[in-house]
Amino acid sequence: MDSQKLAQYLESTNSIAKPWLLVQLRLKKLQERQTSISEDTYANELADIHEDLMHLGEWWRGLEEEVF
Q1: What is the dihedral of CA 50, 55, 59, 60, to 10 degrees?
Q2: For residue 21, which of 48, 56, 46 has the smallest C-alpha distance?
Q3: Of 7, 9, 42, 53, which residue has the fewest beta carbons closer than 10 angstroms?
Q4: CA 59 to CA 56: how far, in whole Å?
Q5: For 20-48, what is the HEC assignment?
Q6: The model scores a pTM over 0.85
Q7: CA 47, CA 30: separation in Å to the nearest integer?
Q8: What is the mean pLDDT of residues 39-48?
Q9: What is the mean pLDDT of residues 24-53?
């Protein structure tokens, strides 16, 4: 699935508020651009996405039935 289809899926399923799916979209977009950007840019953007993912923490605790 490319980033365009993933974005359409997120919109059609009202999943924009699910941060782990937004991280997945960012990763997909980065993957698609990988050949057109420098290794340093790729590494920096990947590190930024990773940092955002780590900040998600356990926000979902107590909401498992609602969000998964």
Answers
A1: 10
A2: 56
A3: 9
A4: 6
A5: HHHHHHHHHHHHHHHHHCCHHHHHHHHHH
A6: no
A7: 11
A8: 98
A9: 96
Q: For residues 13-29, b (16+ Cβ closer than 10 Å) or e, as one string? A: eebeeebebbebbbbbb
Under DSSP, is residue 13 helix (H, G, I), strand (E, B) or coil? coil
On the question of pLDDT at 41 being above 90, the answer is yes
Cα separation, 16 vs 22, in Å, equals 7
Owner of token pair 């050949």:
35
Q: What is the DSSP letter of 50?
A: H
Task: Kindly state the helix (H) or strand (E) to which residue 9 belongs, with its residue range.
Answer: helix 3-12
Asked if residue 3 has pLDDT above 90, the reply is: yes
**Tokens 């780590």 sit at which residue?**
54
